[in-house]
Every structure is written in structure tokens, then in C-alpha cells.
Amino acid sequence: MPLRLRLDKPWQPLTAETAARLPGQLGVYQVADAAGIIVFIGQAGARAPFGLRSELQRELGARGPGYQFRVEVNQQYRTRWFELLMVHQADHGSLPADNAKNPPPALGRLSPN
Amino acid sequence: MDFEPSPEQQMLIDQVRRYVREEIIPLEAKLDPDASELEPADHARLVAKTKAMGLYGIDIPKEFGGPDIDIVTRTLLAIEMAQHRAGLYVPCYGTFGGAGLAQIFEANEDQKERYLYPTLRGEKKPFFGLTEPSGGSDPARAIQTRAERKDNGWVLNGAKIFISGADRAQYGIVFARTDASKGRAGITCFIVDAGTPGFHVRRVVHTLRSSSYATELEFKDCWVSDHQVLGEVNKGFAVANDRLTRQRIPYAAGCIGVAIAAHEMAVEWAKMRSTFGDKLANRQAVQWMLVDNEIDIRTARHFTLEAAEKARRGLPFRTEAAIAKLTASEGGGRVVDRAMQIHGGMGMTKDLPLERWYREMRIRRVGEGPSEVQRVVIAREILGSSLR
User: Strand locations in A45-107, DSSP E?
Assistant: First the structure.
């Protein structure tokens, strides 16, 4: 049975409190603006000191208030990250705004059902 | 057979070993432990270096511009190229170039112009579409993708799975059944452009290999012209089979390279680490693990070079390639496992490359024909029959 393609968990406000509650595990995440438009898809890789928690704390520090996020704990954080980027590109015709500024080299194409 | 490298081979081995240690490993220390790509600027800089070394496109035949290095020497170099964290699946991050797909060298002139030469120039990337959800070990029987005649061409319908690079490729080689009544004599090989209507990369398939993914493909009324048939109609299985046999030698070499790197780490650690007042290297339990590593590596190296030597001399090497693939993938897995055991807790972390090698090496017992299929190939040779 294929895994779910899209990250469709409910959004949480990106605050110091919600970020502090996140696990220190590897995984992927999405950041959206107040209107729910995804602006960035990121990964918490093995070099993140506290996994998803420190990555989202870093996002909060860089962006400030007014954003929301959702995460997925995933050991296959790199391939899942590529997958989420490709699915977003297929759904919306482009990458999220902040990924488009520095796209990964040689991103593939998906045409999901 | 004497497999000691000649002075010329040793010179090339030393050159590649230095390249891995001085260029690749320092860059790798800054990458994510699961990364499979260098920054484009680093990649371009290193490609310029391998070109200057005269080793770029090492697997490309001489008549197509390759550096004319025999398969035994290429095997020795492939063992060296794999000795870094990403080395099993992305030796030296592709900075020695690739040969594309071996089958494309058998294409007709028109197809060579459209696919082979752009691939060799690095302008196009291919994928290899053989395995299907119905199975991969026995492709002659498992292939259910159909190709039916229509309008001076063929209409493909079906699915493929575990296909690497299809989402980034410009074209692929796809095997489909063109005569359902003929078994392996009813399969044809097609070249399919990525933009062909009806060709879809449906999803990413996540595996133990977290650095890179495979894909699942769908062909839905995908029409290709007769010009896209590679080789002859109903003779595609021979094309696939030839590739599978040849690929087993570099596949084995990669396993040996990683096993050597893991073993060297274990030896170094055993000499350094003390427990209960003595070095690990002085414990018989650890010594025996290191001895078993040495035996696994030497065995795999011998059989892999034997297969390469037979291929170099133009002799049949199907059985030898199967033995090489079997001993290197199974032995390599055992070596990495023992190296992790000797390293204890640190061996389980992403701080060291061992855990990545452990996951990726496990795939090697299945990829390019599982161990059981290699044993079937060897058994056929021993018993002199096809064991049907």
C-alpha cells in the first residue's frame, strides 16, 4: 500500500511553545503563511542539533510571528523532502516561494494521481 | 590467475585513492549524511579534475570517446571509488562520468544521434524500465506491460516499479510484452521520451536507501513510433539479460570498496579503543571478527576480478559474474555488520558512515538479481541444465 503522498495534517501556529513541544527526530515540515499558502518545505536532517524541534525554532527565529507549520517524523527525510517538493510542483505548477529561491539541483517531475 | 595489480594499474589505483581521500571525503564531511549530490559548483570543479586525470567517462567504450581502460582495471578503480560515505550508490558523486545505459550502444545510427551521443555529452539522462509490480527476479515471465501495434507504432499500457531516476530522465528504455504467447521471446525493448503523452511518473518509492529514491511508472495508451524500437521486435529480453550480467561486476566492486572502508575503520578503532584495561584489538572475539572481514573481502575481490578477467578476454562470464555479485553483496554486508559491532554505540549513529552502508548494503542482496537468483544461475552451470 503506497504511503500518503501529501502532508495533510492540521496546521499549528508557529510559536515558541509549539516549536518547543516538537520531537528531536528527523523529518520533514511545511511552513505556511496566515492564509495557509505553503511558503517553504524543509527537512530536519542529521545535522540539525535537535531534529524537527531545532529546525522549527530556527524557522521561527528567521521568520517571526504570523506563520503556521506541520511536521512529519520520517527517517527517510531526504527522499520524503524531494517527494513533497515534486508533489507541490505538480499541484501548483511551481515550488513554494522560499524553496524557489534556492531549488535543489535536478529536482524531478511527478504526475501523481 | 594473478590478480596483483600491474605497475600501471597500481598507479591509477593510487591516483583514484588520493582523489577520494583528498577531494571527496573532505567535501562529504560538510554534507548531510544521507546526501547523494554535491553542490553544482563542486561537481563541475571535480569533473574538470577527473578529465585532467584522463579518467572521465571511464566506462565509455573507446570508439565512443572513452579512455580505453580494460574492465579489470575499471573494476580495481571501482573498488577505490566506492570508499566513502555515498560511495556504494554514488561513487565519487558521479564525477567520473557515466556511460549511460549499455543497451544504447547497440542502437541504430538514428537512435545513437538522438540518444547515445547526447547522453555521452551529459545532455540527456536515461532510466532503465524493467521491473514491474508483478516481479523483478524473473522478468521474462513477470513483464505484464503490453505493447500493441497501432498506426506504424506501438501502444504501451502497464506499470513499472523500483525505477531509478525516471523523474529526472529525458528518456528511458522500457521492456514490454509484444507477443503474449512466446514468453521471453515475446518481449521488445522501446525507447520512450519522458514527455511522451501517456507516460507518467506516478510516485516516489521510499526504501532503506534514504539518500535516493526509486519511482513507480505508469504507461497509459502511450504511443511510440517504430523508430523507438531498440534492437529487434521480440528480442528485447536478450538486451535486458546482457545488461544484467555486465552490471554485476561493477555492482560487486562497489560492495567490496565499502567493505574495505568499513574494515579499515574497524581495524583502526580496535587498535585505539580500550575496554576493561585492554585494547579491543587484543580481544580474541574482536580479532576473529576482523579475520572474518579479511576473508570475506579477499574472497569477493578474487571472484570479482576473476569475472572481470573472463569478460576482458571475451570468454563467457555469466556464472563468474553471479558468483562475484553473490559473494560481494553477502560478504560486504557481513563486513559492515561486524564493523558496526566493533564500534559499539557509535557504529549505530549518523556521525559515522557505517549505518548508511549497513542500510544500503542490505539492498545489494536484492538489487541486480537477488542472491537466490544468482544461486540459480550458478546451479544451472553446475548441473548443465536450465532447471526448468
Answer: 68-73
Q: Are residues B145 and B250 in the same domain?
A: no
How far is the alpha carbon of A105 from chain B, nearest alpha carbon, in Å?
Answer: 7
Q: Same domain, yes or no, for B291 and B376? A: yes
**Which is nearest to B134 in space by CA: B146, B123, B147?**
B146
How many domains does one find in chain A? 1
Comparing B192 with B247, which gets the higher pLDDT?
B192
pLDDT tens digits, B116-138 = 999 988 889 999 999 999 877 77
Are the beta carbons of A79 and B205 closer than 8 angstroms? Answer: no
Q: Which residue of B has its CA nearest to A112?
A: B202
- Whole-structure pTM value: 0.91
B343: cell is 564500534
Task: Give the separation between CA B353 and CA B365, rounded to whole angstroms.
Answer: 19
The number of angstroms, rounded, from the C-alpha of A60 to the middle of its chain's C-alpha atoms is 13
Whole domain around residue B176: which residue ranges?
A: 126-230
B36 with B91, same domain: the answer is yes
Residue B283 placed within a domain? yes
Q: A18: helix, coil or strand?
A: helix
Same domain, B289 and B328: yes
| Dihedral of alpha carbons B102, B103, B108, B111, sign | negative
Q: Is ipTM beyond 0.85?
A: no
Residue B312 touches chain A, beta carbons under 8 Å: no
